[in-house]
C-alpha cells in the first residue's frame, strides 16, 4: 500500500475505535490563563496532513486535558499524562496522543492527553516557561480529580514524544521549582515517566528547532540552556523512567536518551532504555515494517507490569 494511503488508513481506523470517555478539562479558569495574550487573529488551528494522515494542532491558547478513561473491568488505577511532540511548534495530537491513549486503555490505564501551549510571542509572554506551567498544572489537576476517575494517586505518570518528551523530562526534573507565577508543588511530580525519542538536551546534541522555539534563536544564555538540558537536572528524586529511541533517528540524536539514562544511573534512579537500530523519528505506535522497533510496546508493557501499573 502507498505510504500516504497507509497513513490515512491507520488514522481512519484508529479514529473509529471507541473511547470510554473523552471529557475535556480546561487547565485554567476562563480569563485566568497565566501569561496569556489575547489575540483573535491567531485562533487555534487543526489540520490533518495529506501525506501522512497526522493530526497537527497549533496556536493553542486554551490548554486542556482530554480524558480517555480505562474500561472499568480492566482499570488498574494507574494513569498517564501524554505530551505529544512537534518541536514546540505544533502538537502531533493524533498518532502521539489519541492512538497512544487508546493503547493505554487496552492495558487498563487511563490516559490524559495534554494540549499544551506552544511558545509564541503573539499569544503569551515569557514563552519559555509556559509549556512547563501547563504540564505542572495538568499533573496537579489529574491528582485533584483522581477520585472521579478511579485513580491511585501514587500511580500517575507522564509520557512524552520528541519535544513532548522534553516537556515530560522537564516536568520530571523541574516539578519542585516554580514556573512563572505557578508555585512548585509535590502534586506536579509524576510517579513515573515514559520518554519516546525525547529531546533531552539543549546542548551539542540538541534538536535545534525545539530549542529555538522554546528559548528563542538569539541571545540565549548558557544558564538557560543548561536549565533546560534535562540530563543535567536529574536528581535522586527524578521518577523511574522508560526510554525508547532509534539509532537512525536523524531529527533527535540517540544520545539524548543515552545521556538521560546515564544521568538516572548516576543518581541511582531506576531506568530502562530500549535502543533499536532502525525506526527513524516520530513513529509512536506506527512501527510495522520498521524492524525490531515493533517490539517496543511489548517491552513497555513488561516495564509497566514491573512498576505495578498493570495487572
Outline of this structure?
Helices cover 29% and strands 16% of the residues.
By CATH, the architecture is named 3-Layer(aba) Sandwich
Largest sheet: 8 strands, mixed
Helical content band: 25-40%
Query: How many domains, in number, for the residues?
Result: 1
Characterize the quaternary organization of these chains. single chain
Spatial order of the strands in the main sheet?
A: 1-4-7-5-8-9-10-11
Separate helix tally: 8
Q: Which regions contain 5 or more consecutive residues with pLDDT less than 50?
A: 1-21
Domain BD-FAE-like: 74-261
Signal peptide: 1-21
Protein name: Esterase
Keywords: Hydrolase, Signal
How do the helices and strands line up, and which of them pair or pack?
Elements: H1 3-16, E1 24-26, E2 45-48, E3 55-58, E4 64-68, E5 79-83, E6 91-92, H2 94-106, E7 110-115, H3 130-144, E8 156-161, H4 163-174, E9 193-196, H5 208-215, H6 222-227, E10 241-246, H7 255-266, E11 271-276, H8 296-306
Parallel strand pairs: 5-7, 5-8, 8-9, 9-10, 10-11
Antiparallel strand pairs: 1-4, 2-3, 3-6, 4-7
Question: How does this model look, in words?
Answer:
This protein has 311 residues and is an alpha/beta fold. It has a single domain, classed as Rossmann fold (3-Layer(aba) Sandwich), CATH 3.40.50. The protein has eight helices and eleven strands. The strands form two sheets. Strands 1-4-7-5-8-9-10-11 form an eight-stranded mixed sheet, sandwiched between helices. Strand 10, helix 7 and strand 11 form a beta-alpha-beta unit. The termini are far apart. Keywords: Hydrolase, Signal. GO terms for molecular function: hydrolase activity. It comes from Arsenicibacter rosenii. This is Esterase.
Amino acid at each position: 500500500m502507498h505510504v500516504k494511503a497507509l497513513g490515512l488508513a491507520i488514522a481512519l481506523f484508529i479514529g473509529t475505535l471507541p473511547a470510554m470517555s473523552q471529557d475535556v478539562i480546561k487547565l485554567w479558569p476562563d480569563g485566568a490563563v497565566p501569561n496569556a495574550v489575547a489575540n483573535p487573529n491567531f485562533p487555534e488551528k487543526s489540520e490533518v496532513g495529506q501525506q501522512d494522515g497526522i493530526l497537527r494542532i497549533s496556536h493553542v491558547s486554551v490548554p486542556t486535558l482530554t480524558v480517555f478513561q480505562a474500561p472499568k473491568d480492566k482499570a488498574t488505577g494507574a494513569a498517564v499524562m501524554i505530551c505529544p511532540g512537534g518541536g514546540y511548534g505544533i502538537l502531533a495530537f493524533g498518532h502521539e496522543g489519541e492512538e497512544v491513549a487508546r493503547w493505554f486503555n487496552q492495558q487498563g490505564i487511563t490516559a490524559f492527553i495534554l494540549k499544551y501551549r506552544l511558545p509564541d510571542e503573539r499569544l503569551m509572554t515569557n514563552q519559555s516557561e509556559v509549556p512547563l506551567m501547563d504540564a505542572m498544572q495538568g499533573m496537579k489537576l489529574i491528582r485533584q480529580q483522581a477520585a472521579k476517575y478511579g485513580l491511585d494517586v501514587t500511580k500517575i505518570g507522564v509520557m512524552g514524544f520528541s519535544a513532548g518528551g522534553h516537556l515530560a523530562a522537564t516536568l520530571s526534573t523541574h516539578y519542585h521549582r516554580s514556573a512563572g507565577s505557578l508555585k512548585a508543588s509535590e502534586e506536579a511530580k509524576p510517579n513515573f515517566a515514559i520518554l519516546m525519542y525525547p529531546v533531552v538536551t539543549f546542548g551539542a546534541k540538541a534538536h535545534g528547532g525545539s530549542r529555538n522555539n522554546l528559548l528563542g534563536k538569539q541571545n540565549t544564555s548558557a544558564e538557560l540552556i543548561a536549565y533546560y538540558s534535562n540530563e543535567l537536572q536529574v536528581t535522586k528524586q527524578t521518577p523511574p523512567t522508560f526510554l525508547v529511541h532509534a539509532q537512525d533517528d536523524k531529527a533527535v540524536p540517540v544520545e539524548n536518551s543515552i545521556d538521560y539514562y546515564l544521568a538516572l544511573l548516576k543518581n541511582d534512579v531506576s531506568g530502562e532504555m530500549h535502543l533499536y537500530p532502525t525506526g527513524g523519528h516520530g513513529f509512536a505506535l506506527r512501527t510495522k515494517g520498521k524492524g525490531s522497533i515493533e517490539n517496543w510496546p511489548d517491552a513497555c508493557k513488561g516495564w509497566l507490569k514491573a512498576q505495578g501499573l498493570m495487572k
